[in-house]
Amino acid sequence: MSIGKIVILSAVSIGDPRELPLDGSACSASSTTGQRWQTVRRAVRNRPWEASLTMTTIFKKIIDREIPAEIVYEDDQCLAFRDVNPAAPTHVLVIPKQEIPAVSALVDDDAELMAHLWKVIPRIARDLSLEDGYRVVVNCGPQGGQTVDHLHFHLLGGRPMTWPPG
Length: 166
Description:
4 helices; five-stranded antiparallel β-sheet
């Protein structure tokens, strides 16, 4: 179950999610759902930018093929496509198909998915001939530069990267 669905269900069936208990007691499903509920509840209370999950993100629309993208890799767990506003000659976004709003919303049950993404990224880099090196960036929250509320990794390459990055 995605976080977005939890928010929608809570808003419809039990009212304002800001009024619900932080311990997840309002959620009677699996432990994963309970963990995600706690994450959503904290997001509403502490990071309202993450609470916009009831809206479909542009990344979800790409996953669902509602809008086109130049896809460079896909499997059952993730999708990678070229950024429409590249910050480097090669700029690919690698996203999980599971809707996770940000790195701050990860739970223990996401460990296998995250390991998979980190294994896929070097494969994509090899396929894109980035043998001279590349950078992987994950932004979190508005001050961290995150503009889409769906966890994503920026794979940047094709030029020398400078430090600090921003």
